[in-house]
């Protein structure tokens, strides 16, 4: 009898799960939704003016720091990712690429830019964010399909609006040295020194429409005068990211009915050695910029191009040893055991040769960033 009642409640739940209100009549246990594993990548596979999502087939407007598989190029598709013979990340079956703009120190006294050293590679958190509506609807977290790609953030954003969920996706953690208390995260470049370095985090959308892979349409309809070689503004205009969106509370909460499928909630975490420039700073001045010319920090963004063995990723998502009790430690994940690469191996992986000409390291003179990018007002 109890069983039967449960079944009825469970079925009711199945049919009402799309309305995002009450969990009271759903007898499925509230999921912990804290499971995650951390994919570390020891170092970039390249630093180059390339972006096969936003600017396929040509140099990108600005420079990127790129982690992951060695097939990264002007153009990329799923099959090409699988031709990578190496990756700088910790699972050899993950031939994805993960990329972000590069951080520079802007010396306003002599109009030079110096690339900031990136320390420790990247941590990509694969967070399994399901809520009761998904469980009650009998859904599970889905591995990214073949051909899937997406971006987070907006290279053109220069302000912070606290009522926009997506504006909270970028966080700057000003790391201090040993005994100083931690500071709350900043939403743009912090206007102070960070003696332990600057950690930048960005969260990706985790609600998917179940169909789209992220499409680039070469016949840009947004501007009749747009020429495919133009790199001045709105570089993302021809790339359509509407296949994904954020859940109601950024990385928790409910997905809208238009995007009801859950994919792993990715979070990129990278640290930059900004403290190496402390002696060159002018008090009260924020001297760091991204390679896209953004000095506010609000224009930070990140790209993901899926190169996973999709079945393996799905298996890991279902594998409890890859989830909540491991504190994110990927070494404990049974599904990945035979494919793990130590940090030492990752750091010995041969990088790619730069494909777009132009200096990016050292002190850049002439008041321009790579690609002729200037710092915006
Ligand atoms: C990718 O590779 C698969 C299997 O080798 C093949 O069936 C498919 O046609 C390829 N796709 C493209 C777009 O080349
Ligand atoms: C991958 O291929 C490149 C170029 O052919 C070669 O230099 C490199 O050693 C190969 N790496 C691995 C891990 O096989
Ligand atoms: C400009 O300043 C940088 C430090 O920010 C220094 O390394 C560089 O040598 C200076 N260059 C010139 C031309 O003065
Ligand atoms: C902030 O975002 C909200 C919600 O999208 C919008 O209604 C509001 O106009 C925005 N405020 C500013 C100053 O842009
Ligand atoms: C982006 O793609 C979606 C879904 O395919 C479509 O509805 C929308 O109109 C597209 N947006 C633009 C700006 O092309
Ligand atoms: C940084 O802080 C200083 C002193 O607290 C202030 O004068 C300056 O306007 C601030 N700059 C920015 C960009 O917020
Ligand atoms: C991990 O998940 C299992 C079930 O999936 C649950 O029983 C356990 O309490 C969870 N542990 C933690 C630390 O959340
Ligand atoms: C991008 O713009 C810069 C200067 O604004 C120019 O030097 C560079 O050639 C442009 N790149 C492309 C691909 O058009």
**Helix-strand pattern:** HEEEHEEEEHEEEEEEEEEEEHHE
Task: Kindly report the spatial arrangement of strands forming the biggest sheet.
Answer: 1-7-16-10-9
Count the DSSP helices: 5
Number of strands: 19
Mean pLDDT: 88
| Termini Cα gap | 70 Å
The secondary structure category is: alpha+beta
| Uncertain spans | 1-22, 220-236
Helicity, in percent? 10-25%
- Beta content comes to 15-25%
Structural domain tally: 2
Bound molecules: 2-acetamido-2-deoxy-beta-D-glucopyranose
Rounded to an integer in angstroms, the radius of gyration calculated over CA atoms is 22 Å
What can be said about the biggest beta sheet? 5 strands, antiparallel
Q: How does the overall form come out from the CA principal axes?
A: globular
Mind explaining what this structure looks like?
- With 377 residues, the chain is of the alpha+beta class.
- It has two domains: 1-30; 35-216 and 236-371, no CATH class.
- The protein has five helices and 19 strands.
- The strands form five sheets. Strands 1-7-16-10-9 form a five-stranded antiparallel sheet, with no helix packed on it.
- β5 and β6 form a beta hairpin.
- The longest helix is centred in the N-terminal third of the chain and has 15 residues, at 2-16.
- The protein is globular.
- The protein starts with a helix and ends in a 13-residue tail after the last strand.
- Mean pLDDT is 88; it is low at 1-22 and 220-236.
- One 2-acetamido-2-deoxy-beta-D-glucopyranose binds at residues 107, 110, 112, 114, 280, 363, 365.
- Residues 212, 240, 242 line the site of one 2-acetamido-2-deoxy-beta-D-glucopyranose (NAG).
- Residues 1-20 form the signal peptide.
């Amino acid at each position: 009898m109890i069983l039967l009642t449960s079944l009825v409640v469970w079925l009711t739940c199945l049919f009402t799960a799309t309305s995002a209100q009450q969990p009271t009549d759903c007898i499925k246990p509230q999921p912990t939704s804290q499971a995650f594993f951390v994919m570390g990548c020891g170092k970039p596979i390249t630093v180059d003016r390339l972006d096969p999502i936003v600017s396929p087939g040509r140099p990108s407007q600005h420079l990127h720091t790129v982690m992951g598989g060695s097939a990264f190029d002007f153009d990329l598709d799923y099959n090409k990712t699988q031709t990578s013979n190496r990756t700088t990340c910790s699972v050899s079956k993950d031939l994805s690429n993960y990329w972000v703009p590069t951080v520079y120190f802007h010396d306003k006294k002599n109009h030079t830019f110096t690339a900031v050293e990136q320390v420790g590679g990247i941590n990509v958190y694969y967070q399994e964010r399901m809520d009761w509506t998904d469980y009650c609807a009998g859904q599970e977290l889905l591995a990214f399909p073949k051909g899937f790609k997406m971006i987070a953030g907006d290279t053109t954003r220069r302000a912070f609006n606290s009522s926009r969920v997506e504006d909270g996706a970028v966080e700057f953690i000003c790391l201090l040295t040993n005994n100083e208390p931690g500071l709350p995260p900043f939403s743009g470049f912090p206007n102070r020194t960070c003696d332990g370095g600057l950690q930048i985090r960005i969260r990706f959308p985790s609600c998917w429409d179940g169909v789209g892979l992220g499409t680039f349409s070469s016949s840009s309809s947004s501007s009749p005068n747009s020429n495919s070689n133009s790199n001045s503004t709105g570089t993302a205009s021809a790339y359509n990211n509407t296949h994904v969106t954020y859940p109601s509370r950024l990385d928790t909460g409910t997905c809208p009915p238009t995007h009801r499928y859950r994919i792993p909630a990715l979070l990129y975490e990278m640290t930059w050695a900004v403290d190496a420039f402390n002696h060159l700073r002018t008090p009260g001045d924020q001297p760091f910029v991204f390679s896209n010319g953004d000095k506010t920090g609000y224009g930070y963004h990140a790209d993901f191009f899926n190169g996973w063995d999709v079945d393996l990723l799905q298996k890991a998502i279902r594998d409890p040893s890859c989830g909540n009790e491991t504190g994110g430690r990927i070494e404990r994940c049974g599904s990945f055991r035979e494919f793990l690469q130590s940090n030492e191996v990752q750091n010995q992986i041969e990088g790619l040769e730069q494909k777009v000409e132009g200096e990016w390291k050292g002190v850049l003179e002439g008041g321009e960033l790579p690609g002729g990018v200037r710092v915006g007002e």
